[in-house]
Amino acid sequence: IIFWHDCCISYRLIFGTLYPAYSSYKAVKSKDVREYVKWMMYWIIFALFTTVEVITDIFLLPFYYELKIAFVVWLLSPYTKGSSVLYRKFVHPTLSSKEKDIDEYLCQAKDKSYDTLMHFGRKGLNVAATAAVMAATKVVI
Fold this sequence. Notes:
elongated, mainly alpha, 4 helices
């Protein structure tokens, strides 16, 4: 099972990531808008697949790794156009209807993360300053 798992990871790395990355590079280089769109849809679906995979990897169903490889091949296939189908039927309509809420949430998260970073930055500077003063007073005494 371990060998098969490692083999599946290698196939997924090659066919799910490296081949699409190189094809994306070729699309950017050629400036073919249709290829841009095709590969952008793939990467969006692949990102969602990778996110869902974190949860589904807990359940080792029979032929689980084979199904994952088959799914990635289906996404990539120019005959099935799997990533395009999933993007157009599910992802685009869902994101379009929730876009305002998502943008608002991301904006709030960005603001909160900036505030948190500033808060911990100030705290860190205070700790460093206190440590420097303590070290300096130990040297003087």
